[in-house]
Amino acid sequence: MYRFLFLLLFLCVIIPDASAQIPCLMEEMVLTPGGTPSQSSTYENSGANIATDGNTTGTWSTGKASRTLEEPNAWWAIDLGEIYALEKINVWYPSDIYPEGFADYYIMYSRYPFSSTDLATELASSMVSSLHVESSFASGAVVPLDNESARYVRIQNSGGGTVSLKEIIITGRSKEICDNNCDDDGDGFVDCEDSDCSPTLYNVTKLNPSCPICPDGQISIQAFGEDLSFSIDGGQSFEEACDGFFHCEMEGLLEGDFDVLVTNDNGCSVAWPENPVQLRAASGGVDGACENGGFEEGGFEDKWTGGWGEWIDNNNDQVGDEVVITNNTLLLNDRHTIINAELNPTDPEVPGIDLSPPSGGKYIAKLGNSETGHQAEVLKYCFDVDADNADFHFFFLPVLQDPNHVPEETPFFYYVAYNMSNPFIEGESFIADKTSPFYQTYDPNPNVSNDDIAYRSWTCRSIDFSSFIGQEVCILFGTADCAKNQHFGYTYIDALCNLEVKPTGNIKPVEVLCESSNGGFIIDGSESRGEN
User: Fold this and answer.
1) What element of type H or E holds 211?
2) Residue 3 phi/psi, 5° resolution?
3) Cα Rg of the chain (Å, integer)
């Protein structure tokens, strides 16, 4: 017989047929008394091990049966030591405890230890299989287990009381051998189709981002198996998980479509049947201080003020407090605008500039335009600093015509951060200079001199407001065109405050050097299209 079994297994290995399920069945074996029995409690000397001593005769009163106390969740269980394909279980019970027969109990089995003594909890668990024995069967009756894989078996009363067992015999085979094209355990599934070889992905939940550009979305993955890895991009990248049951939360996610996949070292993968998992923010405005300055509402929120007027630079240093503002009411005109970058994806003056917001939202602010007239514009944003917005980020994209004038007559962009106790926390000024490596250059008309445009793709800046927690701070953005009324300057602004895309798990942070005006660099998870 053993020579025949060996030959059958040998043929299964050397003559594979991917379209056939070859029943290379392992030898059936008795799995008890080799396991470790236990029970919810012990009445007198009736320990759990009596039910696996090989004796199917006698009664409880003669010391031949295990027995628990009378209790609501009485149970008897056994750990088989490893996972097997369970074929059947024989249950012998003592007639002096159950003169009318043993009935209304559950047989539960699982690959993993039971997490609770509560019957309802275990029956609801996706990791637990169960059979309900409603009517009384003769002592020693066979209950089929359909070759399901398990290591832990429990017998538990439905209505409470006592559990007393004379003998339990569980029969089964070794679990599926992966990648041999044989149905080793006789359950009708081969290799990766068999739960012994493939992971089980049993639940995926999500938490939508709180706004279209907020990186606070979440995907939770619940699975179990051995040597697992998981992915939320359909298998392009993986993050290692632990053996057994795991519950992983992928945090820091923006809006998007995600394909959840779990795989193991056997090369067996399981995709979530409801892919893609869609993260979508609720319609409406952006909540919270600084989330893109409220631009995603399609306008300037009440934290913004500003104005426009004529600029004067007596000290030739392009500092914003020398811009003379004649209107401070932030009336929305064509020099203070919110732009839907999905509808307006490129700059009107420089076709090669991509306006796609690095924050991941739809909207950006534009300060100034391509008109001239010695005009200056400012936008001011003030907010109370707390731990959630102390790490302040923003992106800017200047488009400045370089007339080849002296500095005090040349378009520029600047920003200044300040509060009541400190009139200058940080700031920078960027004058149009087509010879500077900071800029790229575009010539709209090669036949006309001194009309080149110095521009910069999205560039990130970071300001550390952590020493100002509990105080109000402001950041002032300004831009101005040429003092000789001929050349323009304007700047786009995006992504204010803590828009750091730092998901955990397999989606790795994009390392970006977000420059600080004090000369240092902050490495964070914000994605920038700039060239820092």
Assistant:
1) none
2) -65, -35
3) 36
Distances (CA, A) of 344 to 332, 347, 364, 456: 18, 8, 10, 18
Q: Are 172 and 89 in contact (CB under 8 A)?
A: no
Measured between alpha carbons, how far is residue 181 from residues 22, 149, 213 in Å? 7, 18, 48
**CA torsion, ordered 526, 306, 362, 395, to nearest 10 deg:** -20
Tens of pLDDT, residue by residue, the chain (532 residues): 333 333 233 333 333 443 444 566 667 789 888 899 999 999 999 999 999 999 999 999 999 999 999 999 899 999 999 888 898 999 999 999 999 999 999 999 998 889 899 999 999 887 899 999 998 888 999 999 887 888 999 999 998 899 999 999 999 888 777 777 787 667 778 878 777 787 888 889 998 887 666 677 889 888 887 788 889 998 888 887 766 667 777 887 888 899 999 988 878 889 999 999 999 876 544 444 567 787 877 888 778 887 887 766 555 544 433 445 555 555 556 678 899 998 999 999 998 899 988 877 788 999 988 887 778 888 888 888 888 788 888 999 999 999 988 887 889 999 999 998 898 999 999 999 999 988 999 999 988 888 899 999 988 888 889 999 999 999 999 898 887 768 999 999 987 765 444 333 333 333 334 555 444 333 332 322 223 2
Distance CA 500, CA 137 (A): 64
**Residue 254: both structure tokens together:** 């923006």
Q: What distance in Å separates the CA atoms of residue 152 and residue 175, rounded to the nearest whole number?
A: 14
Residue 378 Cα distances to 311, 322, 367, 457, angstroms = 11, 12, 7, 21
CA 66 to CA 51: how far, in whole Å? 6
Cα 303 to Cα 382: distance, rounded to the nearest angstrom: 6
Q: At residue 168, what are phi and psi to the nearest 5 degrees? A: -125, 125
DSSP 14: H
d(CA 480, CA 409): 10
Which SS3 state, helix, strand or coil, does residue 7 take? helix
- In the chain, the amino acid numbered 156 is Q
DSSP 410-436: S-EEEEEEEETTEEEEEEEEEE--TTS
Whole-number Å distance between alpha carbons of 25 and 5: 9
The residue behind tokens 């067996």 is 268
Of 273, 275, 237, the residue nearest 256 (C-alpha):
275
Position 72: which residue type?
P
DSSP state, 23? -
Query: What's the CA gap between 270 and 198, in Å, rounded?
Result: 7
Q: How far apart are CA 434 and CA 401, in angstroms?
A: 9
